[in-house]
Amino acid sequence: MSHALKALAMVCALVPAAAAAQAQDRQAARAGVMASSDSDGNHTTKTSLGWDWRYAAPDQWSGVQVQDARFSGDGWRKQEQRVYLDAAGAARSWRWEGKVGSNGHRLLGSGTIHSQDAYRKEFFAERDVLETRQGVRHGWVQTYAGAALDLPLSERWSGTVLGGLQDFGVGDNLRTHVRANLTFALLPQQGLSLQLRTRYFHDSHTGEADYFAPGDYRQALGVLAWRRYVGGHQWFARGGLGRQRSGGDGWRQARLLEFGVDTARWKQAWLRLDAGYSDMPAINGSTDSGYDYRYAQLQLRYAF
Q1: Is 193 helix (H, G, I), strand (E, B) or coil?
Q2: How many domains does the chain have?
Q3: Residue 254: exposed, middle, or buried by beta-carbon count in 10 A (0-12, 13-18, 19+)?
Q4: E strand or H helix that includes residue 20
Q5: Residues forming a β-bridge with 202
Q6: Per-residue model confidence as pLDDT tens digits over 106-132
């Protein structure tokens, strides 16, 4: 029996007591798949199944999730199984969501908590396998944590600032992240907005392992965004064009395209789909001006 299956057995042993204590709540089944690829030949696929033994609302639930993760690239391939305990809930004016688990060798997980006031404050953390050839082979785990703040400036103007730190689980590199966005509600009734997105990160050390670490990375994007309810479904789409620069390289084009839908409920079942494309390097990307990254994700939940 694999480490992941042993961990699942331990988790399941704890479930009956928790389920009995929450017998008045409904339960839910979940399924999801995420796939990504890039022009360097790297591919990631994560397939998951989950069960919520307590389901009260879309933002209030407790459950368990099993995941199959597959990573591959030119001349290499790796597969692993993971088990997580995950939950979401509320504490006064704050909302939180998180998961903690393991692939049988390393502690993995993520978490976020945010306020619901006009000056929305968010604190987040993520711990996952470094998705490069060496990272997957040696089990290196990268950790990213930070905070964000929304700034309502006027009826139509708003801003967001974010700061974070990222450790890659190998070597001495510590990456500092800074982001700042400015948004103007162009046509509020139609859900249209214009955004200026800026992003910067700095690597304290470069040339460690096989992940993308140019030293300094800068990016500025102008984005047209749309979000609106149509037929009970929440649709969104974003398209951006700008400039980016890695290390000592010259400025080059940056592009972004994203879209998705969060469906209305149908007999207590609903799904979420989102997908996107960009030519901004991921962790395992390259500095080649021809680089691009694509992803798609589907999530389904059924309450009973």
Answers
A1: strand
A2: 1
A3: buried
A4: helix 3-21
A5: 176, 216
A6: 999 999 999 999 999 999 999 999 999
Burial 126-141 (b: 16+ CB within 10 A, else e): bbbbbbbbebbeeebb
Q: How far is CA 43 from the centre of its chain?
A: 16
Work out the average pLDDT over 183-197.
97
What is the SS3 assignment for 6?
helix
Closest alpha carbon to 128 in 96, 162, 98, 168? 168
> What does the alpha-carbon distance between residue 268 and residue 219 come to, in Å, rounded to a whole number?
42
Amino acid present at 268: Q
Question: 81 near 91, Cβ under 8 Å?
Answer: no
Please write the tens of the pLDDT for every residue from 203-255.
999 988 999 999 999 999 999 999 999 988 999 999 999 999 998 888 999 99
pLDDT tens for 29-70 read 999 999 999 988 899 999 999 999 999 998 999 999 999 999
> For a pLDDT cut of 90, what percent of the chain falls above it?
79
Whether the per-residue pLDDT at 1 is higher than 90: the answer is: no
The Cβ-side half-sphere exposure at 19, using a 13 Å CA radius, reads 14
CATH number at residue 207: 2.40.160.40
> Taking the CB of residue 77, how many other CB atoms lie within 10 A of it?
11
Find the angle CA(65)-CA(127)-CA(270) to the nearest 5 degrees.
Answer: 35
CA 261 to each of CA 162, 228, 301: distance values in angstroms, whole numbers, following the listed order = 26, 10, 14
Q: Residue 132: which domain range?
A: 3-303
